Amino acid sequence: MAGVLIAMRLRVLAHSLTGSRAADMITGGVAGLLLALGTIALVGADLVPDAARADLLAVLLAGWMFGWILGPVYTGGGEDSLRPEHFSLLPLRPLRLASGLLVAGFVGIAPVVSLIAFASLVVFAAGHGAAGVAVSVAAVLLQLVLVLVLSRLVVGVLAVAVRSRLGAVLAAGVNAAMAVLLNQSWVLIWAAVDSELLTYGFPPRFATVLAWLPSSWGMTAIEAAGDGDWARVVAALGGLAVLIVAALAIWARLLVRRLTTRPHQWAPTGSGRQGSLLDRLADRSATGMVAAKELRTWSRDLMRTHLFCYAVFFGVLYTLVPLVVDWWGMLPWAGLIVAVMAAATSSNLIGLDGTALWLGLVNPGGERAEIRGRQLAWLLQVAPVTIVLTVVGTILGGTAGTWPWALALLAATLGGGAGLLVLIAVYALVPVMEPKRRSGNPLEAGPIFGQVIVALLLTCLTAAPAAAVAWIGTHFDRPAVTWAAVAVGLATGGWLTVWGGRRAAARLRATGPELLAAMRGGGTVSLAAVDRQGRVAGSVPELPRRTSMFVTFCWTFCWIPLIPQGLIPLWMIHSGSESRVWFAALYLDDPWRVPVALAFVALGLALLVTGTVIPLRHHRRHRLARSPREPSLT
User: Fold this and answer.
1) Full-prediction pTM beyond 0.85?
2) Could you write out the DSSP letters of every residue in 240-280?
3) 3-state secondary structure 445-461
4) How far is CA 20 from CA 83, 551, 576, in A?
5) For 364-397, how does the pLDDT look when each residue is reduced to its tens digit (9 = 90+)?
6) Whether 605 contacts 562, CB under 8 Å
7) Most buried of the four, 243, 324, 337, 534, by CB within 10 Å?
8) Which residues lie closer than 8 Å to 231 by C-beta, 6 or more apart?
C-alpha cells in the first residue's frame, strides 16, 4: 500500500507544481537548505566554543523538531496532498492507513531538507569515535521519522480539536505564539549575546531541559556510544522508536475520529444578557440589525473566532517577549498591534460568509446598511479589547509622554481599520469554501496572505497624520501639540470610517453579482474570472514560473531589510542604544548609520512594492485583453 500512496503523491506533486505553487516550494526549499547547511556549519566549524557547541546543537535540533510540530499550525492546517478523507470509503485499518500516509509523507522537499539538517548529528559524532558515528546514522533516521510522525499527529489533533470553539481559541494561541517567535527572534538573539550564552554554554537547568527533549536523544546516544555506555545507547534509541510507535498509534485513532465525526458550531441557549443587548441593537435600524447579526457570527463561526483570537494573542505576546531583555516599552502598544492585526485578519469578512451575501443583495438599497453594520460590529468587537490593553500597557510600561501617542495612534488605526477592511473586502475579495462545506478547521481561511499584508500596511499608514503631529509636539517640547494628536487621530479615523464605508457600499451596489458569482465557486473561481454580469469568463493565467519565483522572493525577503535592518536600527539610533547585535547599520561610524538604515528601508519597500505591482499588472493586463470593447454611444 505504501508504494501506491507514494506513486499517488508523486503524481499529485507533478501536476500541482505550476506557477506560484512551484515558486513557493522552490523558494522554501532553498531557504530550508540554507538553514540546514547553517546548522551543519555551526556544529562543524569553529564558530562556537566547545563549551557551548553541544548546547547549541541541542537548541537547533529542538528548533527543527518544534518547526515540524508547529509548522502545520503556522502554515494553515498542514493539510497534505493526500488527505485521509480520500480513503474514508476503503476497507483499511486505521493503523495501516496511518503507516501508509506516513511513508508517503517522506516524498517532498521538507523531509530531504530536514535529513540534511539532522546530518549535523554525524558531524557532531566525529568527535566521539567510530562507535559514535555508527550510532549517529541510526539517530538521524529515527529523528527524521519522529519529526514527521509528530507533525502528522499535530495535524490530527488540530483536525479534531479545532472543531470546537475552545479548540479554535487554543489553535489561535499556538499560531500567534509561532508568529511572534519568528518576528521577535531578534530579541532572543539579543538576550543570548548579552548573557554570553554562546561563549560559556547554557545554564545547567536549561541544558537539562534540552537533554530531556526527544530532539536531544540522538545526541545522548552518540555521547553514550563514545563513552562505551551501550545501555544508554539502547535506551535513547529505543525511546525514539517507542515514541514513534506511540505517536503513530494515537494518530491512527485520531483518523478514525476525524473521519467519523462532524464539526459542531457553538450556539448559546436561552436569551441571556448578551442576547437581549443584541436584540435591542437589532431593533434600532437596519444597520443595527446587520451589526447584531455580525456580532453573533463573530462568536459562533469557528474561523472568525480563530482569526480574532489570533489578533489578540499576537498583540499581547508580541509586547511581552521584550520583557526577556527587561524592556517594558512595548507594552503600551499592545492595543495598537491588536487593532492593526484585527483589521488585517478581518479584511475578508464578506468572503468568509460565502453566498450568504445574497440576503443583503435582494434588499434594494440595503448595501449601505450591510457595510455600516459590519463596520459597527467590528468596532464593538475590537475597540473594547484594544482600549483596555492600551490603558493597562501604558500604566505598566509607559510614561506621561506615552499617553498622547498611544491614544492618538489607537484612535487612528481603529477608525482607519474600520474603513479599510470593508474596502478590501469588496475590492480584493478572496473566495473561500462555503461555511457549510468546511471541515471545521478554522485555519482553512483561504489564500489571504497577500490581502493581510496589504491591510497591515494600509492600516499602519492611517496613523501617519496623528504620528506626525505627536512627533512635532514631542520634538519641539510642546505638550499641547502632542495632545492635539489625539484629536487628529479621532478626526482621521472617523473620516476614514465614513469614507471607506461610503466607497465600499457603492462598490457593493455596483458589483454585488460579481462578488456573489465568485463566492459561489467555493474558492475555485477567482474574482478576476467574473465579468460585469456575474458570469464566469475564464481564469486569468498564472504568472510565469520565473516571474512567480521572483515575486515570492520579494514577498519573503522584503521584511529583512525593512524591519530588522531598517526600522529597528533607526529606532535604536534615535533612542541612543549602544547595542549592535546583528544590525549592520549600527556597526558603522556615526555619519553613516542613518543613511545606511534608510537605504535598507528603501530596499525593503522596493521589494514589497515590486512583489505587489507585478501580479496586479499581470491580472489587469489579461482582464483588459479579455474584456470585450463596449460600443460607443456616438
Assistant:
1) no
2) HHHHHHHHHHHHHHHHHHHHH---------S-HHHHHHHHH
3) CCCCHHHHHHHHHHHHH
4) 22, 9, 43
5) 677 888 899 899 999 999 999 999 999 999 999 8
6) yes
7) 337
8) 224
Cβ atoms < 10 Å from Cβ of 136: 26
Residue range 540-599, pLDDT digits in tens? 566 776 777 787 778 777 877 887 788 878 877 776 766 666 678 888 877 788 888 899
Q: Which three cell numbers stand for residue 634?
A: 456616438
- Which residue in this structure is represented by grid cell 561610524? 589
The long-range contacts involving 60-63, CB below 8 angstroms and separated by at least 24 positions, are: 60/117, 60/120, 61/118, 61/120, 61/121, 61/143, 61/215, 61/216, 61/218, 61/219, 62/210, 62/213, 62/215, 62/216
Residues in the chain: 634
Tell me the CA end-to-end span of the chain in Å, nearest whole number: 69
Instruction: Please state, in angstroms and rounded to a whole number, the distance separating the CA atoms of residues 505 and 42.
Output: 56
What is the per-residue DSSP string for 311-341? HHHHHHHHHHGGGGGT--TTGGGHHHHHHHH
> Cα angle at 366 between 360 and 367, to 5 degrees?
80
The one-letter amino acid code at 507 reads: R
Q: How far apart are CA 97 and CA 110, in angstroms?
A: 21
CB 158 within 8 A of CB 443: yes
Return the DSSP state at 564.
Answer: I
Residue 283, C-alpha cell as written in the block: 431593533
- Hey, what's the cell of 607? 521589494
- Using an 8 Å Cβ cutoff, are 416 and 493 in contact? yes
